[in-house]
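I'm stuck. Protein, please.
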Amino acid sequence: MAKLRPEQLSAALSKGLAPIYIITGEEPLLIQETCDTIRAAARKAGFIERDLYHADNHFDWSQVLASANSMSLFADKKIIEIRVPNAKPGDKGGKVLQEYAQSPSSDNLLLVITEKVDGVTQKSKWFSALESQGVHIQHWPVTADNLPHWIGARLKQAGLQADSSAIDLLASRIEGNLLAAVQEIEKLKLLAHGKVINMELMSSVVADSARYDVFGLSDKALHGDARGAVKTLHGLKSEGTEAIAVLWALTRDIRSLVQISQMTSQGKNFDWAAKQSGVWDKKQPLFRSALQRLKPAHLQQLLRKANGIDKAVKGMRDAEPWDELLDLVLNLAGVQSLHPANEKLSLKL
């Protein structure tokens, strides 16, 4: 039906829902907000139920068609949400998605969420089939050059005003992490009291950040500082930080490690590969250090472990997310897997 820019979504939804939405990109915050907007519109239209699937390598794709064809006891309309890692559903998944797109039911809304897609993927049969019946919304990364403009727009959306020096300070603090920017803006809403936010006020708010932050955790793990990483992880947990926020920061950097590793194995320059993977200049030494001890097989294992933690957080696995986050942090720092005895060792680090 159409490709939409994210800012066009609300106007399009006001005219009615499409049967299929494909959300792609690598900015978790923006993707989450887009999905929330679609889900809210769907609920107003009577789509009360929601079936969520994580289509990893072992996923049974027949579940999707079974869900699409099953009727609710209360005859509610249903959102079928599928998260597809790496935009690669495989042969079975591709065939299922093509079959679904041939005759989407008005009682179902299909929401497919995946990472950024290249030109080859967009021309694939499964993607073309979905796009012919639905809407594709692609989120592009917010670059360092565009970040101050993005922050200014979010401040305005929150009813705040800030001068350019204050915006530049916040941009340098968050280093491209949009979720962190939103969290700082929420604090500013409480403290600004209608004032124009200048550099002095911004400095006081930024300096008032939590002692333990998810970015510091990931940096310590990348550096190989297992003791410091474990201390930060325990601090985050004690401060009430959500496990999913910690997992997001770690997974973001692990994915960047995987991308850089793949590019350098193909003969690409490390600095170029790091830049292409969205790693800021001052963090590149951390990634270089991590890649000296983490081989491709280890990185893939870390991604699988992160996926398992995601399922545990969402109640899809019977496991304690914080215990497994400890394991992930130690593995990223270069310590061998400690689970289930990781808690005892963590106290010694």
User: Anything to note?
Assistant: DSSP finds 18 helices and eight strands in the chain. The two ends are 56 Å apart (CA to CA). Confidence is low (pLDDT under 50) at residues 338-349. The beta strands are 2-4, 20-25, 47-54, 77-84, 108-114, 135-139, 161-162, 196-197.
